[in-house]
Amino acid sequence: MNFTHARVLSTEEVYEDTYLQWYSAEEIVTPARVGQFVMLRCRSDEEMDPLLPRAMSIHRTRTVAGELQWSLLFYVVGRGTRWLAARRSGDQVFTHGPLGRGFEIRESSSNLLLVAGGIGIAPLAWLAEEGVRRGKNVTLLLGARNASLVYPAELLPPEVEIVVSTDDGSAGRHGLVSEAFAEYLMWCDQAFACGPNPMFRALAEVRRQSGVRKPAQILMEERMCCGTGICYSCAVFTRKGVRLVCKDGPMFEIHEVY
Ligand SMILES: Cc1cc2nc3c(=O)[nH]c(=O)nc-3n(C[C@H](O)[C@H](O)[C@H](O)COP(=O)(O)OP(=O)(O)OC[C@H]3O[C@@H](n4cnc5c(N)ncnc54)[C@H](O)[C@@H]3O)c2cc1C
Ligand code: FES
């Protein structure tokens, strides 16, 4: 884990209230793996409010002129994310990372099924890229409340098959992403999901009812104060006892939690 002032390279609103922000600070991602996250202080060094840093998944990486850069994809919900969205090229954000346990793609898996609920696409875009790079077949089930909250397909590798579902039917299939999951589950060797807790519950139920118990990893979110296993604000009950999302996760096998 490294601590640094990461320099903002660009900030762009890519769809409704959702920002793509690129950073320069190689030391944050040089040891990072897909599904890990960073903690960002959402204020200047002189201010004290908001006191606690905010957790964000590493969305993607890229190499530009020999420099490894990384990005966030975030939805504005409150003070911290509003402050981040206002950062411009050259601004600095105090950051520590990479943190937590990321996704694990098995060598033996050929077909990867990714399930994103809303802003849960943030870490899955990198996983989709990684799957394609390793020669896997990748299908992404992309769920959103409505058409204006759907992650743009052109930002994903063309090899990825994308199936969009919206709650109101304004884009793609009309319904919950868990309904599409029921149809695609048998095809995959491994499933990976990120989204709200009710979505995980629904996916776990579909998996149980399928009778085949495909391996499925989820990336969980809890309110986090430290991100490093000190404060216990992110404790969750699992079948193996109490676990910390920041340190034991955020990746868990779905059956450990649901
Ligand atoms: C490991 C991890 C990775 C994350 N990755 C991303 C990401 O890639 N993109 C992204 O947009 N968001 C991500 N989040 C959620 C993000 O941390 C919160 O949206 C952010 O902390 C909100 O800060 P705020 O100051 O804007 O909102 P606040 O003013 O603190 O809160 C506004 C509202 O958001 C809710 N909220 C705040 N934090 C969380 C949280 N951690 N989980 C659920 N609800 C929350 C609050 O209950 C409140 O209703 C991640 C969270 C975790 C734990
Ligand atoms: S956020 Fe402090 S222990 Fe997990």
| Count of distinct strands | 16
Uncertain segments:
none
Overall average residue pLDDT: 96
Structural class: alpha/beta
Please give the domain count. Answer: 2
Just name the CATH architecture of the largest domain: 3-Layer(aba) Sandwich
CATH superfamily of the largest domain: Nucleotide-binding domain of ferredoxin-NADP reductase (FNR) module
The N- and C-terminal alpha carbons lie at a distance of 30 Å
Walk me through this protein's architecture.
This protein has helices spanning 26-29, 79-85, 121-133, 177-184, 197-210, 254-257, and strands spanning 2-15, 18-24, 37-40, 54-57, 60-64, 67-75, 92-99, 111-117, 137-144, 161-166, 173-174, 190-194, 216-219, 235-238, 241-244, 251-253. The protein has 258 residues and is an alpha/beta fold. It folds into two domains: 2-99, Translation factors (Elongation Factor Tu (Ef-tu), domain 3); 111-257, Nucleotide-binding domain of ferredoxin-NADP reductase (FNR) module (Rossmann fold). β14 and β15 (241-244) form a beta hairpin. α4 (177-184) packs parallel to α5. The model has no long low-confidence stretch (mean pLDDT 96). Bound molecules: flavin-adenine dinucleotide and FE2/S2 (inorganic) cluster. Residues 37, 50, 54-57, 73-75, 77-81, 119, 122, 221-224, 250 line the site of flavin-adenine dinucleotide (FAD).
